[in-house]
Specification:
heterodimer; A: mainly beta; Methanol Dehydrogenase, Chain A; five-stranded mixed β-sheet; 5 helices; 40 strands; globular; disordered N terminus; B: mainly alpha; about 0% strand
């Protein structure tokens, strides 16, 4: 901790006030990311820019950053959290975030890291049964009748409203500050003894978003790789009054009779299919009064024979009127999704000048390795998205969509499909071994459909790329520079190999997910996948050529890629691999989603889950590395930045194997 | 004192059979695999069926060391609680995976020291 002399302190505060004033001036009338040195939403601003216009930390001083405080999250919950995914808000003189599997809400002093208050929901069976105790990402903030209110969705799927000053539940919101989000969801059977849904599961790991006095609530579910059954609860989207907690509207993500999209569900599949959750954080344009919701795959990530049809609004972006819940427009990224291509990121909202014309954009960066760019007012793609024929499934009972939407621009930022040319070729021996391994499965282009583990043709499953851990995803996400109209996206080179087995022969799932011990917990779905992962290459090396993780800069004025850099340096397990000694291997980057933040002058990134504890600064226009500083532990999710008392801070969550979750705050030293 | 303490195990080791250098030489015990099966059922099966770890899995890792695989699993899994199991539990999971792939059990339990496990090379049950 640096000693802060009085005069220096005052001078820094004055400089900060001037800086904030200038920033606000530049932002007038435009969407310029966060404002006033704050970070009021999970994604920075309502458009999830992850952009801070602050510039106290710059290329010249980045390497002087030092740790100012560390806040320990490990004791918030029955055991330490090793996968901390929270991004705090900064509003006024407090940070607000969540911690631990109970999703305790905390207020923290932005200057010192001192805990100011804590609230958590009393334990109940809904928490015990929650399939998303971890991964809590944060909270929402709004002002109601002049009072700051913090909203959180708990693992048990309750919503709480807390006084931002004190952490005390707001008495006139719901019942003593709590709204039960199971209520009003629909007519789904409940296990009366335990008070949990017996027809499936629903919870949330993200914060809601407040738009013009309406809290919009998303949701998430258990993993869908091999569900116990084809039935589940759909992730319907709801709007609530920010003052009273009263439910105002519901948008059915699986449309019922008479609703738009109902005819995309054959037979009775609309009655029992669930998921289609909006687990990614939400974004909004409050001037348009629109909330942008993205959804995931309908129940059973990798087999759709139990839900034939296009399956609206699965794997879609939906623009809803925030006050009424009415659909303004939608776009389905994947028809009848059987690739687990759930939309993983909060959509980016920004305005870009193209040929002298302002284009209001909303962008979703995806596991498919594509950035889908739309006019956010009407949903028209900014560059053509074309329906193209795709390979068809031969799995019994499956019927794939004959075409899928292909993004023509911007170009994909990750590998598309897997061919022999994509396999590693560090040495001829490794390449031959990689070919032999991959040859047991069906390689193919984008949208290569999953296939049987024991297929009569002798294959054991099918590749698709990017796969479950490929492309863009929530930990790294994407960030924008609204001043220059640039999108930065962190991606990972991950493929999946999906092998389907009959649900009747599926391995039982863990007992906590199978509440009735008397009933064998295999799956009643027709087919399920054995798992979501890919296969390794020879000798434990990656199967595919590098880079294994990257950051791509895309100019939204033209749709062209500006640059692409590997995520950090070649990892030790490749650099020191015995089969690669003496070879000149170019930087492969780390196989992780980099965690990125854009500021006025820098692109800043951590290497992400399980990688080196280094924070990098990069030139926004060239991708050239400007500097790096060591962190106490590896970054785990997207970070945030704010100005407090004249000092710019960067706060990031760290966690990992052997690293208990904490927040780390960095700033420049204040010299006496 | 220190010299005696370090000298004793050395002489004891000399009297023993050399530790295994390949997964074909019985690098785990039946008890470890049995416990590993329970862990797989209770924890790993949230995302993975046993089928994922049979056949191609062991072919992919052939030539790498058990320590490499141990490091990979113990730092990345379980997905939502990486590194949260005890080292001996990760060794038990590996024991079960080896058993699934027809690799023989032995009399001496598998170590949970990455450095020791780096001395054992992964080989499938058939050449």
């Amino acid at each position: 901790m640096t000693f802060r002399g009085w005069s220096t302190w005052a001078a820094a505060a004055l400089a900060g006030a001037l800086l904030v004033g200038l920033t606000a001036g530049a932002a007038a009338g435009q969407r310029m990311g966060t404002e006033g040195g704050e970070w009021r939403y999970w994604g920075g601003d309502e458009g999830s820019s992850r952009y801070s216009p602050l510039d106290q930390i710059d290329a010249g001083n980045f390497e002087s950053l030092e740790v100012v405080w560390r806040w320990k999250a490990a004791n918030y919950g029955p055991q330490p959290d090793f996968i901390y995914r929270a991004t705090p808000l900064k509003v006024g003189d407090k940070l607000f975030t969540v911690a631990g599997s109970r999703r305790a809400v905390v207020a923290i002093d932005p200057a010192t890291g001192e805990t100011l208050w804590m609230w958590r929901m009393r334990n109940n069976p809904r928490w015990e049964a929650s399939t998303r105790q971890n991964y809590g990402k944060g909270v929402a903030y709004a002002e109601v009748d002049g009072r700051g209110v913090i909203y959180v969705i708990t693992p048990g799927y309750y919503m709480a409203a807390l006084d931002a000053e004190t952490g005390v539940p707001i008495p006139y919101f719901g019942m003593n500050g709590i709204v039960d989000l199971h209520l009003g969801l629909g007519d789904y059977p409940v296990d009366a003894d335990r008070g949990i849904l017996s027809s499936g599961d629903i919870t949330s790991s993200s914060a809601p978003i407040v738009v013009n006095g309406v809290i919009v609530v998303g949701n998430s579910h258990d993993r869908g790789y091999y569900p116990r059954r084809p039935e589940n609860v759909p992730g319907h989207i709801r709007g609530y009054d920010a003052k009273t907690g009263e439910m105002i509207w519901k948008f059915n993500v699986v449309p019922g009779p008479g609703e738009f999209g109902h005819d995309t569900w054959e037979g009775d599949s609309w009655k029992y299919t669930g998921n289609v959750s909006a687990w990614a954080p939400l974004s909004a344009d409050s001037e348009l009064d629109i909330v942008y919701v993205t959804t995931d795959t309908p129940t059973n990530d990798y087999y759709g024979g139990d839900r034939l049809g296009g399956n609206l609004f699965g794997t879609s972006i939906i623009a809803l009127n925030a006050r009424t819940g009415e659909r303004v427009w939608h776009f389905q990224m994947v028809h009848h999704d059987i690739w687990n291509y759930d939309n993983p990121n909060a959509p980016k909202v920004l305005d870009v000048m193209q040929d002298g014309r302002r284009v209001p954009m909303v962008i979703e960066t995806t596991k498919q390795g594509w950035a889908y760019v739309f006019n956010r007012e009407n949903g028209v793609p900014v560059w053509p998205i074309e329906e193209m024929p795709v390979p068809q499934s031969d799995t019994p009972g499956e019927r794939t969509s004959p075409t899928q939407p292909f993004v023509t621009k911007p170009a994909a930022f990750e590998l598309q499909g897997v061919t022999e040319d994509d396999l590693i070729d560090f040495t001829p021996e490794l390449r031959a071994a990689a070919l032999e391994l991959a040859g047991e499965y069906r390689m193919g282009p984008r949208f290569n459909p999953p296939s049987l583990l024991n297929h009569p043709d002798g294959t054991k499953g099918a590749f698709h790329a990017p796969g479950a851990n490929g492309g863009a995803n929530i930990p790294g996400g994407s960030s924008i520079d609204p001043e220059n109209g640039i999108l930065y996206v962190a991606s990972q080179r991950g493929h999946s190999v999906i092998s389907l087995v009959p649900g009747s022969s599926a391995q039982p799932r863990p007992s906590n997910l199978c509440p009735d011990p008397a009933v064998p917990c295999a799956s009643s779905a027709t087919y399920v996948a054995t798992g979501p992962g890919g296969i390794r290459g020879p000798q434990g090396l990656p199967l595919l050529k590098p880079p294994y993780g990257a950051i791509t800069a895309i100019d939204l004025k033209t749709g062209d890629h500006l640059w692409r850099i590997p995520n950090g340096d070649t990892p030790d397990n490749i650099k020191n691999h015995r089969a690669l000694q003496g070879l000149d291997i170019p930087n492969t980057g780390k196989n992780a989603h980099a965690n990125i933040l854009t500021t006025k002058t820098l692109l800043i990134y951590g290497e992400g889950r399980g990688q080196e504890p280094i924070l990098h600064a990069v030139d926004k226009m060239t991708g050239e590395e400007i500097g790096r500083v060591e962190l106490p532990a590896t970054t785990n999710t997207a970070m945030m930045s704010y100005m407090h008392d004249g000092r710019q801070f960067i706060v990031l969550a760290v966690a990992g194997a052997g690293v208990e979750a904490e927040l780390v705050a960095l700033a420049l030293p204040i010299r006496p | 004192m220190l010299a005696i303490a370090t000298a004793l195990p050395t002489s004891a080791q000399e009297a023993q059979v050399a530790p295994p250098s390949s997964t074909r030489e019985g690098v785990y015990t039946e008890e470890q695999a049995e416990r590993g099966k329970e862990i797989m059922r209770d924890i790993c099966a949230e995302c993975h069926m046993d089928d994922e770890f049979m056949g191609t899995f062991i072919k992919s890792w052939a030539g790498a060391s058990v320590g490499d695989l141990f490091e990979e699993v113990s730092t990345k899994m379980p997905e939502d609680r990486p590194g949260s199991m005890r080292p001996r539990e990760y060794a038990q999971v590996l024991a079960y995976i080896f058993q699934l792939n027809g690799l023989p059990a032995g009399e001496v339990p598998m170590s949970s020291s990455i450095e020791e496990l780096r001395e054992i090379i992964i080989e499938g049950s058939q050449g």
